[in-house]
Every structure is written in C-alpha cells, then in structure tokens.
C-alpha cells in the first residue's frame, strides 16, 4: 500500500527519469470512493489513494497522452471494465472512455482553467453506461487545435498564454459512492471482441 504522499513521490520520480522539464502538466487525482483504490496510468500502477478524499499529484510533460483509471469495483488493471479519464496533450484534449461491458466508477474531469466561452474547459462527468460525456472506445482522431471547440465527447482546454491552468483534477466517485448497483455485472470471459 502506498500513502497518497508516496503516490506523489513515486509518480514524480518515475516522470523525472524521462523528462527534460519545460512545461509540466499536473494531474491532481482525488479518490472520493468509500474504499482505497489503485490508480493506473496506461497500464502502470501509481499506487493507491485512501478512501473518502485521498489525493495525489502526478506531474507529466505538457504533451502527455494517456488514460487514468482504477481497477476498483470490478475494473481490470489493463483498463477493461473501467471508466477511463483520457488526455491528449498536443491538442489540450480531454475525454472519458466508458466500457460498455461494465461500469466500475464514476469519474469527473475538471480543468484547472475556469470554464470560458461556454464550450471550453467544461467539467465533464460520466455516471454510467450510456452517459453522453464519454466515448465508448478510445478516440483515434484528434483534430488540429482550433478556435472552435471540438465535438463532444471530445473537449479541450487551452492554457492561459502564461502557461497557467493547463492541469486537470480527476475525481473518482465524485458523489462519494460506487455505482449502485454495479451495472451491468462483469462478464465472465473478459472477451471484448475486436481490438
Ligand atoms: C497567468 O494568467 C492568468 C490570467 O491572466 C492569471 O490568472 C494567472 O495568475 C497567471 N499565472 C501566473 C503564474 O502568472
């Protein structure tokens, strides 16, 4: 078990090996679930966060792309049977990806830069299979950055010109509970078909 403090330390140490830091993008991860949960990024564990508000910060380069999720409540550490919080740093894109086989935890993503122009920097949240604010498979195309907001469920939040506000707050179980009842149940085979 890692405390949220070591979560921070481990994450920063892992990143420090790879990055000649210019810009950094901070991801604050908050666990409001009623149990401690393990956090994974692109299949790699970052350790666990304690129940009811445990949090940690992961610092990544500005162009970081990847997904955050937990294996809690029937999720798989490979990302199957999870809701995933996704980021594509080159376009400042963020999004959620829901797995139609199983819904393990609600997640919200809140950009650090306040919402502006209505369509940019919105807080997004997916509370179950069929939610409007999530893809059902990983998006393969990201449009070039533009003055127009992308089509949901793809969202963007450009930082301020001075670089502030390019981070995100990812909250697991924003309502304080796992989905009740868990729906639908985890399928036996784990075979999702296709790739
Ligand atoms: C960057 O600019 C924004 C908007 O003017 C401001 O709110 C913020 O405090 C600035 N950040 C720094 C580090 O100067």
Query: CATH superfamily, please?
Result: Thaumatin
Principal-axis shape: globular
Determine the strand fraction and express it as a percent band.
25-35%
Helix/strand/pairing category: mainly beta
How far the N terminus sits from the C terminus, by CA atoms, comes to 32 Å
Q: Which range best describes the helical content: under 10%, 10-25%, 25-40%, 40-55%, 55-70% or over 70%?
A: under 10%
Task: Report the count of strand segments.
Answer: 11
Largest sheet: 6 strands, antiparallel
- Side by side, the strands of the main sheet go 3-2-5-6-7-10
CATH C-level class is: Mainly Beta
Keywords: Signal
Signal peptide: 1-23
Task: Kindly describe this structure.
The protein is mainly β. It has a single domain (about 5-140, about 150-170), classed as Thaumatin (Sandwich). The protein has one helix and eleven strands; from the N terminus they run H-E-E-E-E-E-E-E-E-E-E-E. Strands 3-2-5-6-7-10 form a six-stranded antiparallel sheet, with helices on one face. The chain has a five-stranded mixed sheet with strand order 4-1-11-8-9. Strand 2 (about 35-40) and strand 3 form a beta hairpin. The longest helix is centred in the first third of the chain and has 15 residues, at about 5-20. The structure holds 2-acetamido-2-deoxy-beta-D-glucopyranose (NAG).
